[in-house]
Prior knowledge:
Layout: E1 3-7, H1 18-27, E2 32-35, H2 44-54, E3 57-68, E4 71-78, H3 85-111, H4 118-122, H5 133-142, H6 149-157, E5 170-171, H7 172-181, E6 185-188, H8 202-210, E7 215-219, H9 225-238, E8 241-244, H10 265-276
Parallel strand pairs: 1-2, 2-3, 3-5, 6-7, 7-8
Antiparallel strand pairs: 3-4, 4-6
Helix pairs in contact: 1-2, 5-6
Amino acid sequence: MRIDLHTHSRVSDGTQSPRELMRAARAAGLDVVALTDHDTTAGWEEAADAAEAAGIELVRGIEISTRHRGSGVHLLAYLPDPAHPGLRRELDRIVEGRDSRAPAMVAVLQGLGLDLTVDDVAGELSADTVIGRPHVADAMVRKGIVASRDEAFARYLDEGRPGYVDRYAARLTDMIATVADAGAVSVLAHPWGRGRRSALPPEEIAALAALGLGGLEVDHQDHDDDARAELRGLAGDLGLIVTGSSDHHGTGKVDHELGCHTTAVAEYERLLDRAAEGPA
């Protein structure tokens, strides 16, 4: 059984619809796939219909924007109650921050002399899309300002670059508790990728485990072999679930093909068992 527990559709910053994503997952030989769009559950219904048609087991998830020790940290929530009031309230607040940041970023980029408008960015969105920096990047590519998303982020949109604008993100410690109360299992996404180890050293991950963190995404393209080995050992010491996944975004992120990393069946069963226990 091949299990990929981290993918994105066009509902957030992927380039495929949920239906197209499920078909691609089947073609990639996956048996289980989680849809984990950023800060939204809007793609679940379409994905569920498509997964059933394709003979794939769908895991409903969310990748939630949080902050910890001054850094952005992404928290995967698997099998939450989407109507949970606390979870719904935080997701709405995060999305409101995303919505207000986009025009602010466009204004900053215009101030740098770039030919970009809010309408250009809106042209990259479908009806249910939760807007993010990748959509600004895609508009920049379409206008010929940069050649790729990667260039847009490296030159303008990454934190510390001239076009970056901050936005609201939930406190990681609070969100771990909220996710547990919503009956879900929380897993730190690519915890040591992109220089995040300083925000999540081993002792900090241990403290988060004591607060109810459920697992670590260990096998991910952003982790080298040494990071994976250390995270796997840490997860074992703390009793955390170990996941592996592609973090697939369609053509929006290179070298993250569906199934490039997978989750072991035994670890997936642990995740399901923990979710079945219900709210913490």
